[in-house]
């Protein structure tokens, strides 16, 4: 099944009463509507289905109602009365109604499975997978929906959509429940929250990793972005718990206003679950995890303060479910690497190489700060530029790269990217001294040049490749993942060095 091509759901033989499901709705042309399936795309409608009119970014579903009826729609859910030949259910928010209907048709899977939602600017995916690892160590069967892919308890598939639409969400959760999953972990993006993709979901735990300035072009302002993240709380059950980052100002602001049971995590401030760094190297770090009057050391292969925060959030979530601290540590330590998340590449080279998806200025700053702490030599940054980045964010990327690294190489986001020069220029505009920005359009050549400049004690960080290319095994051979390119180039370098060292030398003796 491909999770990206359907917007339909329905498996209830008896059907769902819209009057019972949506008591505030008004009905035109009927006292009630019995839905056995629904769809939000007119081109996908089958005879007898309910069409839900949703306003998208580029089109209004209300303008497509007649098309849906011609294709066989038996009824319509809309946000306004419509002069049509089939019954109409008028609601205040058709996105919310669509989600409610999708989950009702899937027989409310979140009533039979424990669900955790994770949102934030950075760390969502890693935190989700840390939660999953801990719960699995505790004996639970866990499904997941993240930007790295989905796991329904039976099979896994890579994809690049962190928060699927309600039809896919309901279907995936239903499959998890059918396959015996006891828990599900969902990554909630700001866009998905704005578009009500979690409508119909009931969460046991809502976790906030951090709320920084991001996606301003998408949301219009930092205030709107904050409001988008805040929407996760509306999906909490009455018995649900919220987890906040006590060192993040926006999370603290949300914590102070939240009217739900809450826990906070912190490294520097006050929190119920805290951490203290003991030691850190390029290959691992150790910190002391404290919950209540218990403290235990945790050694992780992934490094950086941001990863400690992810571990704290995951630990807090699992402690809510009653998982003991020793099991929490085992779960945290079992996650040794994730694609594009401070991913270390080791091929026998004398310098450090890391791949990080950092495509925002905040994410790049975190990556550079983390590596600076464990780099005795120079820090070389290969910065990928792609057209999907916010224009407001591009100069900030350049500013962070210049200040945080010793050598900055600006390249395209993929080997065959057609990013126009405007994107590169926007990034260079952020440099105080533009001459320090080295532009190498070919991504492979940029990585090769970075490796050629690196010496013992230096670190090269390769950033900016899209999540889809980082995780997909089905990309074109001519457009490989950064990790594959890096390994190939590093092995070439190591092989060349070995050949030079093993060349036979003729020593001339004096006669």
Automatic annotation (TrEMBL):
One of the protein's GO biological processes: peptidoglycan biosynthetic process
GO molecular function, one term: ATP binding
Statement: the UniProt record of this protein carries the keyword Cell cycle: yes
Keywords, alphabetical: Cell cycle, Cell division, Cell shape, Cell wall biogenesis/degradation, Peptidoglycan synthesis
Localisation per UniProt entry: Cytoplasm
Gene3D superfamilies: Mur ligase, C-terminal domain (3.90.190.20), Mur-like, catalytic domain (3.40.1190.10), MurE/MurF, N-terminal domain (3.40.1390.10)
Main location: cytoplasm
Domain Mur ligase C-terminal intervals: 340-465
A GO term from the CC aspect: cytoplasm
Pathway(s) per entry: Cell wall biogenesis; peptidoglycan biosynthesis
Domain Mur ligase central residue range list: 118-318
Family designation: Belongs to the MurCDEF family. MurE subfamily.
Protein's recorded name: UDP-N-acetylmuramyl-tripeptide synthetase
Species: Bremerella cremea
Classification of source organism: Bacteria, Pseudomonadati, Planctomycetota, Planctomycetia, Pirellulales
């Amino acid at each position: 099944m491909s999770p990206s091509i359907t917007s339909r759901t329905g498996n209830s033989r008896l059907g769902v009463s819209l009057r019972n499901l949506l008591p505030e709705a008004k009905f035109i042309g009927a006292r009630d509507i019995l839905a056995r399936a629904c769809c939000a795309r007119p081109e996908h409608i089958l005879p007898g289905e309910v069409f839900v009119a949703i306003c998208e970014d580029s089109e209004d579903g209300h303008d497509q109602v007649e098309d849906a009826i011609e294709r066989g729609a038996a009824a319509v859910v809309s946000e306004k009365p419509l002069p049509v030949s089939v019954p109409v259910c008028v609601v205040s928010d058709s996105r919310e109604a669509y989600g409610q209907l999708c989950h009702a048709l899937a027989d409310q899977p979140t009533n039979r499975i424990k669900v955790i939602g994770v949102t934030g600017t950075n760390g969502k995916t890693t935190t989700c997978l840390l939660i999953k690892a801990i719960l699995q160590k505790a004996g639970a069967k866990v499904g997941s929906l993240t930007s790295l892919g989905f796991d329904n308890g039976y099979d896994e598939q890579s994809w690049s959509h962190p928060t699927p639409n309600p039809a896919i969400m309901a279907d995936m959760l239903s499959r998890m429940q059918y396959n015996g999953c006891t828990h599900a972990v969902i990554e909630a993006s700001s866009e998905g929250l704005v578009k009500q993709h979690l409508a119909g979901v009931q969460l046991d735990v809502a976790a906030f990793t951090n709320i920084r300035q991001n996606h301003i072009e998408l949301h219009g302002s930092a205030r709107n972005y904050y409001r988008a993240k805040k929407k996760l709380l509306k999906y909490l059950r009455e018995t649900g718990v919220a987890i906040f980052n006590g060192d993040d100002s926006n999370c603290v602001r949300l914590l102070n206003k939240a009217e739900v049971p809450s826990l906070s995590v912190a490294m520097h401030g006050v929190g119920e679950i805290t951490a203290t760094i003991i030691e850190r190297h390029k290959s691992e770090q150790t910190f002391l995890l404290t919950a209540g009057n218990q403290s235990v050391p945790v050694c992780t292969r992934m490094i950086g303060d941001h990863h400690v925060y992810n571990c704290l959030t995951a630990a807090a979530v699992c402690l809510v479910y009653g998982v003991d601290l020793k099991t929490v540590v085992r779960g945290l330590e079992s996650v040794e690497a994730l694609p594009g998340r401070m991913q270390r590449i080791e091929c026998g080279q004398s310098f450090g190489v890391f791949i990080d998806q950092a495509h925002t200025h905040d994410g790049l700053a975190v990556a550079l700060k983390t590596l600076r702490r464990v780099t005795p030599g120079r820090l070389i940054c290969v910065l990928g530029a792609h057209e999907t980045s916010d224009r407001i964010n591009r100069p900030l990327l350049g500013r962070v790269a210049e200040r945080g690294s010793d050598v900055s190489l600006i390249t395209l986001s993929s080997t065959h990217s057609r990013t126009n020069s405007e994107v590169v220029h926007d990034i260079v505009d952020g440099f105080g001294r533009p001459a320090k920005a080295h532009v190498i359009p070919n991504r492979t050549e940029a990585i090769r040049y970075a490796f050629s400049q690196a010496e013992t004690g230096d670190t090269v960080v390769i950033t900016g490749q899209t999540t889809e290319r980082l995780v997909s095994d089905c990309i074109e051979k001519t457009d490989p993942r950064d990790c594959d390119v890096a390994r190939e180039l590093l092995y070439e370098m190591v092989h060349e060095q070995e050949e030079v060292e093993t060349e036979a030398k003729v020593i001339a003796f004096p006669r």
